[in-house]
Amino acid sequence: MRLRTLVVLLALDAGREVTADRLIDGIWGVRAAANALQALMSRLRRTGLTVEATRSGYRLVLDPERVDAHRFAGDPGRYLHLWRGDLEFPAVAEPEAVRLRGLRLAAQRSALTGNVPELEALVTAHPLDEPLAALLIRALRDDGNRGGALEVFEQTRRRLADQLGVDPSAELSGLHRELLQERRGNLPVEVSSFIGDVSTVDVLVKSHRLVTLTGPGGSGKTRLSVEVGARLPGEVWLVELASVRDPAEVAQAVLTTLGLRGQGVPLTRLREALSGREMLLILDNCEHVIGAAAEVADVLLRAAPGLRVLATSREPLGIVGERLFPVEPLELPPPGAGPESAARAPAVRLLLERASGFTLTSDNTTAVVRVCRALDGIPLAIELAAARLRTLPVAVLADRLTDRFRLLTGGSRTALPRHRTLRAVVDWSWDLLSEPERRLWRRLSALPGGAEVATAEQVCGADPDLLGMLVDKSLLGLGVDGRYRMLESIREYGLERLAEAGETESMRRTLAAHLIALAAEAEPHLRRADQLIWLDRLGREHDNLHAAVRDAITAGDRGNAATLVANLGWYWWLNGHRTEGTRLCVEVLAMTGPTDRADLALVHAFTALNGVEGPMGFDEVKCYFREAERLAVGVSARHPGLRMLTPLAAIYSGSPMLSRGVFGGAEDLADDPDPWLRAISRMLIGQVRLNLGEPAEVAEEDLRFALAGFRAVGDRWGIGFTLSSLADLTAARGELRQALVWQREALALLEVVGMREDLPQLAVKMAHQVWLSGEHEEAHRLLERAREYARDVGAPEVMASVHHCHAVIALAEGDLDAAREFNALAVRLIENSTFAPQFRAMAHSTGALIEGAAGDLATARRKHRTAIRLAASAQDSPVIAQVLAGIADLALREGDPGRAARLLGAADSVRGSLDRTVEQAERTGREARAALGDAGFETAYRRGAGVTMATALAASGLDPAPERPDRQWGEDDQGAGAPQQ
Questions:
Q1: 324 φ, ψ (degrees, to nearest 5)
Q2: Rounded distance, CA 869 to CA 887, Å?
Q3: What is the pLDDT of residues 444-454, one digit of tens each?
């Protein structure tokens, strides 16, 4: 950097002396020793440049014409292309930099005349440069965009006033007057900037003689029409029809706006007057006189070939040749957007533009996003909310938008009365409807997730004609998915009207019955080959289903609430809604009142099942399972989930019913009439065998039986999970190629089903196995994929599993700093978790291995001790085995290869088989064998045989009881591996 500064200072005065003081000041900014400058000069000379020492400084021997800055200064227009990037001159040369920048700007002004995009970029970079603004205004005017030219003037005027406290120059003001005088018509000059897309409508109006802008009240139709009109050459007239009450007065309103007088029938007079003129006629706010407006437009368009009509209305005019443009709400920021992302969203830009003195910050972005999303991006609603920001903090405003019609009342005093409050806007639409249309509006408002045609017909008493009328009047939207939806403000208004009509409770019960029937029909299909079809159907009704549960809770209707939850529990498990589902279950269980016993048992069961990896403590999970098991007595025939409760309760409770040959009751389901439940039972038995340390071959037989069963019924969840378990067993044997085939299929299946909570762990397992296969870059890509999955889930334990895998791989790659960092992140995320002590044991074991590799054996021993205690308490044989193998690494580093071999034998004894995916154990085994020889290693290894989960803590040698120097394990040890005293 100093060398570069030296070159700049010498080159700016190429061929002339530069004093040593100037060079030192420019390079160091403080007084420095002369020898420091001499040393730097020596480095410069080694680059090939010729520098001569002078009496008081140095001179770069170089023709100034070979220096770009000198060539540019001599002829800026000719050498403008030499300017590349920003000037990085030292502070002492800043005056020269200012001079060069000024020359560049002057050259750009001359070179870019008429080039709108580049002029716009320059004006953005130099917002107070009036000559530049004038160039851009002229370019926009010449391009036919007078509206854009007027907007540039207004923005420049505002910046000059706000930042410098001055008015525009005489030149700029005169240009503004010219723009206003060039147009014939009555378009207003807007005092605020426009946010939205004008170009599409501009093209439509130039290509078609009749264009109608449709959309709900407050969507910005009028403002868009004015912006489009401002861009067009020639006459543009805006006819305001809002104040016209009698349809017969529409033609007269147009005559009056155009300043035409005369006797006779107004429409005839108008037709004669316009027959030879070219103009754009904007008919604004046609909806309340729609028939008359359509007649006037039709007559005039037929009589005047040079006429174009741009109408704004909440419904189409409905005449031949009409092109419709639905004015959509402004684009919204995504949920959870940060300041940069949010600021790019047009809805947020409008709020910031209209909210005087309000600035987007990292602290208020969340609330701003909530406001814009709650208001659906409707411009008028956002402008009303912006006005409220003068008196309310934005977080308070966001919280209170549930009462939006009372809150959003601060509209412009000069606006139409119906645009001064949000309620007035929607009242205007309501008043224009027939009673059947109003009835459908208020009933559809009870469905926050919208409705398909069949639902609207069955639940709301709709027919296709009525639905079409509300769509035409911009009160309903028809999505590409075939669902009718309302904007939230329109829906909230409909709910108020539903309550006024005394229909809230009857509508709630009708809707609940409809959704219960859907959920009950879907529930058994979620375990069959057509599960994706039914998951999709439930997914489309997700918001309605959850709203129905919450409405039943609010109404104290425990029966319907419990029935809905009982039929949705497995949907939540499969489709990534476990946390949300658990909370609803808990709320239902807190209710009182009559309910079906089987439903109540299922609610308890799904509270436990969905809560086990969600927001619930492990002790709570066990309690819910026990209560579900109690309630299921006598009603278990009604649902396979109720017959599965006994083994699930045993597994999650650490029941003594789990032991070799006894599987918590799962074995009793082997002959169940439900084939899905038979497959589940064998899958559970296989998993229990592995956890108990039974031979892998026996567990694999159970898992293969389960896989065949799941494939037969078509349950992708069962297929995926069983395949993943089989892949783990296959990888443990060292058959990584086949393991990855199955693991990839499992991940793909669960992605299709949508099991968000389980995808990170599967991706993590696959990343590790891919790394073991030698595809290290692919493994890291998979880890990033797992990280994205985990971010989507948001659970700390899930992200911890990703960090842990990253630590394991970094350790294997020898990057101890990265391994320590990632493992520390994992431990922090799970240190207070009551769930899965197995995972905490593995994380502490990995931390111990990292410290061992770093040479800190005391810390490694302490972490290994924590890991084995946690593993022993979890009673999970694969985890205990992995921790014992980690302690073997410590033994080897402490110089005891015999003990390392014994610990490896103990690990395999607890697990019931070898596991070649524990990379560190493989390395420890190789090194111990090399130290002991084959025979010595095998002898020591066999001394670990017979260690079980129950004796693993003592066998680790890290038991907190004082150790005796002669403690050993022998082949004739009593107590299956207990240390001798």
A1: -100, 140
A2: 12
A3: 999 999 999 99
